[in-house]
Amino acid sequence: MNSSQLSLFNTNTATGNVYRAGDWVKVKKKPAIAAWVKRDEVFKINQIHPIDGSLKFWNPHIKQWDFLYPEEVKLTVEPVVGEASELTVEPVVGEASELTVEPVVGEASELTVEPVVGEASELTVEPVVGEASNGWLESHYKIRRGGKQHSIKCPEIRCNGPYYSYRWMEGKRQRAKYCPASKCPEVRKALSLGQPVNEILKIISNQ
Description:
Elements: H1 3-6, H2 11-15, E1 24-27, E2 42-44, E3 47-48, E4 55-59, E5 64-68, E6 73-76, E7 86-92, E8 95-100, E9 122-124, E10 136-145, E11 148-152, E12 160-170, E13 173-179, H3 184-192, H4 197-205
Antiparallel strand pairs: 1-2, 1-6, 3-4, 4-5, 7-8, 9-13, 10-11, 10-12, 12-13
């Protein structure tokens, strides 16, 4: 891999992001894209997106990789894993910070999402009890390997994308609709304002 290819993953330089892979962040406001994530939850950054600076993390609510934006989080310390369901973390640089660790109840099923083509896929998942959502945006890239096209979460050399899909829950079913890149800013705004699914679908469908 040459220097120009390596620069694709030099994300802190490209985006001006203050976060790095391996940092722990605490959610300070409702995310625009990350599904079922609540305020004050803590996650570990896996990778910084080289295009928009979003933070890739493992979302335990949907059992797959997801993204947060830098303005939705703040740096925190690694949570202590133990018997207690609630604990207090020492303040970081003069700022008091209280961290609540939710106990794990049962075992969540693993969810596999196929790439979205056209109007799209439908699959069954277990809903999160007590949590309502007007959906989320999800991005992926396409790359050909061995004569077949595959969907990947992060960009690689010779891949195409990103492509976006709007996803929402109907009971126990997850539904999806292809979202043109030009509609993404308006959809993200609608998500942050808590607009209902039918209004967001109108935004995507309007030419």
